[in-house]
């Protein structure tokens, strides 16, 4: 049973605001609120390290949550997600190729990552087909993951030095650590643009619950909808991978957590999934900072540890329903 939408939105917004505040003050070095209004030298930690990290966490979480909800609504498949279906892997492959051939100069890295993500979405929809079953869609995603992973492995094997291998592997694990305002300026407009495109698909996604013919009879241009989703997911995923590496399972987990609150209608779940994705990523990023370890656990590793069991439970639940 869903709760009133204003209450649900208010709860999500308050939780996000609380996590933003917590993200600015906690970490290896605790920065109290008093430092905000005094000449405390720890203020530099907030401005130069914590604020860019928090802004990226909100933007990347919102973008990936929104992308997952859009893919699940478009494919009518509860397992759709940029990471699970190989889109993030294709973005990572594009970024790795940029690192080798363009030295990641200027816009080369984000452009290559976005191109890889957009190609991944297009290939996924092409391989799975319009009337894809659950098995077909998962197999198409597995093919993309295998191809992209093989490309990344080949690039690593041809790396010119062990240092380059270590840098790329470290980046592929996904992290918001030591990000600066430059990454924020790079990623924020692209994620915002991709997210805005995905939000325009709400009516089309709702119409698709009636099937392709039903959506077409309501005036939905299915070809245009497919292109908008491919471009939107490509922009969001590519920009996220370009600045933070691969952070998976956000788009898979978030819509499922929010459906009991906002209902199953795909269009109504888009904006809540953006807010929920920001909450999930910020909460996970705060957790990895506070874990008692010699070095900070990578955010991508933490999300995999959370999302892997969730994915398994979801698969088992679906299998029982289909049995």
Characterization of the model:
By secondary structure, the chain is mainly α. The protein has one domain (5-322): ABC transporter involved in vitamin B12 uptake, BtuC (Orthogonal Bundle), CATH 1.10.3470. The protein is 75% helix and 0% strand. It contains 13 helices and no strands. The longest helix has 33 residues, at 43-75. It is globular, with a radius of gyration of 20 Å. The two termini are 25 Å apart.
Short description:
The protein is mainly alpha-helical and about 325 residues long. It has 13 helices and no strands.
What is the topology?
Layout: H1 5-25, H2 43-75, H3 87-101, H4 108-128, H5 134-157, H6 162-172, H7 181-199, H8 202-208, H9 212-217, H10 222-244, H11 250-262, H12 266-290, H13 299-322
Helix pairs in contact: 1-2, 1-12, 2-7, 2-10, 2-11, 2-12, 3-4, 3-5, 3-10, 4-5, 4-10, 7-10, 8-12, 11-12
